[in-house]
Design brief:
Elements lengths: L2 E7 L4 H18 L4 E8 L4 E8 L2 E9 L3 E7 L8 H17 L3
Antiparallel strand pairs: 1-5, 2-3, 3-4, 4-5
């Protein structure tokens, strides 16, 4: 299955970045309610989140790894979503950059 990958650097440290990402995810869940279904996310102790959701009848799965100096998101895309790969990656990157760059 084809995939996507985004990495966004940050100067915040792992704990602050993880807190901001968790807040962002709750905001996005509300913003896209109705478009995203069956959203599941599981965080590990080392700030890695496994996620999956359905949108437009497609299942998207992946992992978000909050590291001390960057956040890495990667996952699998169904073939039917490959036309949107660039837009998916740029949207993830844009949201993460906004989330991780503004002052606390």
């Amino acid at each position: 299955m084809p995939g996507f990958k985004v990495e966004v650097p940050h100067p915040l440290g792992q704990e602050e970045a993880a807190n901001r990402v968790k807040t962002l995810l709750e905001h996005l869940r509300g913003r896209f309610e109705g478009q995203i279904k069956d959203m599941q996310q599981t965080w590990t102790e080392d700030d890695v989140m496994q996620f999956s959701f359905k949108t437009a009848g497609l299942v998207i799965k992946g992992e978000m790894d909050v590291q001390p100096n960057s956040v890495l998101v990667h996952g699998d895309l169904p073939f039917a979503a490959m036309l949107f790969k660039g837009r998916i990656e740029s949207s993830i990157k844009e949201e993460l950059e906004k989330c991780l760059s503004h002052p606390a």
